[in-house]
Predict the structure.
Amino acid sequence: MEIFILILEIIGTVAFAISGAITAIKKRMDIFGICVLGLTTATGGGIIRDLILGITPPSTFRDPVYIIVAISTSVVTFLPFVRRYFEKKHTLLELLLLVSDSAGLGIFTVVGAKIAVDAGFGDNGFLVVFVAVLTGVGGGVMRDVFAGDRPYIFVKHVYASASIAGALVCFLLFYLVPALPEYVSMLVGFVVVMTIRFLAARFRLNLPRP
Amino acid sequence: MEIFILILEIIGTVAFAISGAITAIKKRMDIFGICVLGLTTATGGGIIRDLILGITPPSTFRDPVYIIVAISTSVVTFLPFVRRYFEKKHTLLELLLLVSDSAGLGIFTVVGAKIAVDAGFGDNGFLVVFVAVLTGVGGGVMRDVFAGDRPYIFVKHVYASASIAGALVCFLLFYLVPALPEYVSMLVGFVVVMTIRFLAARFRLNLPRP
Amino acid sequence: MEIFILILEIIGTVAFAISGAITAIKKRMDIFGICVLGLTTATGGGIIRDLILGITPPSTFRDPVYIIVAISTSVVTFLPFVRRYFEKKHTLLELLLLVSDSAGLGIFTVVGAKIAVDAGFGDNGFLVVFVAVLTGVGGGVMRDVFAGDRPYIFVKHVYASASIAGALVCFLLFYLVPALPEYVSMLVGFVVVMTIRFLAARFRLNLPRP
């Protein structure tokens, strides 16, 4: 189970680091800014989660694997031939940004739910879902604030709704079907997040606006 | 006493949720952005307070009442006929924004002071006042950062001064007049905050500026 | 040793308060905004550091000396004849901003390393360096976010690199040369930060950018 979570977290870290690094490249930051923004996006959600749950120092600070993965990913994203490739294929870049951001959102949401349950709050569904959503969206909010954009969560598509739905499904499966292995519940929650985000992007779904 | 604090916190949550939701509507966010900004404004100060005092998970995460109140308030603020009513009465809208923001500031300031004292720091007036002010202004700062505005606290009127004065009065009454019931001290502190803010707005008081 | 750290922290607080206050003056904030931004810049890094390490309430909240120093410094920076003097000497102002920001960065970096070691994480070099850098850059990032600028760390010169190099040197001396008095290791780390920042500013060193 620990291995499973570690693998999930590493994929999520890669995904969010890509989305942070691409945002930084768009803003014409230098290589250091790109690494810092990639790192912030990839680790921000988990740090907030651990502070909320009282897990100090947060796991990001105890195990260098997350920071190494986040920075390596940012550097690769920066490499000239990688960038040049995507500059030609603009649609592909936008797709990559959507996929990486959605995958990061989905993974950190379900990992957040699992860690909240492990921290002993499994009977407080409200807390589990709240912490899960904050883990999922936290890194992206920090990315947008630091890049000087209005956070994505406030302006685009059904972003937080996807995270809430995934967290809720994941928690309900944990709680109501304890016989189900936890990784199955987490995968289902992840699929819910991805599906909602893709449907929203595909059909340009938006929520009512004044 | 607990009931008294709960009622105060709910009024403060409503007030700050209104101010967050109106800000979001002005920025043309969708219904989800409105709820998220209302929620952030209403709960941000209390979350920062609890993290500072080492109370984890923060109370906002343990009891769903705050999030339910904040989101319901945001949704009501969004309702077409409510918005249309205020669009016609622009002065009334500005007044509502001033009143809700001031009430939230006053309530969260005195509740912050009380919770810092309850957490065992009643003999450190400096800490009590600092935590109280951070509780009062924290939600509004997060609202403005997320909305892409320069935080209100840095640019307008005697905002933080009102919170500091109220926190100081509240703490001094706690400390010097222990015979006084705590809710009286809190009400006096609240009135101090409201009075200073209204006088400042009424007489366009401003502090010296280079 | 405690006296040494206290003196260092006070110098760092003065330096960062100056950089925060000058930023606020440039943005035409009023005297309160200037004090709040000076205070935020001076105390932000230390508060983040203590929350990460699980030291609650953070030391800034327990001892009023930091807040008194930060606010006094901000007020002095605001004084008309001080401002008028620097308005005439624009190069001197920019130099002062560079020196104060670099000194704050260097001091908070090495103090952050020392406090992480004292908190019992002396065998986890990764954590020590990470916490040290966050302590060094945290206040400046908060200053820039609140002032509505893109954080300095993302756009200018080798800012975070200087902090990382200083933190690394400081930690390696702590770890590999335990015979060396800790204040010597800290001074060496501080000199590394200052040297890198000044060389970068002098030779307009920049990192590659897409």
Observations:
- The longest helix of chain A spans residues 90-121.
- Chain A has one domain: 2-202.
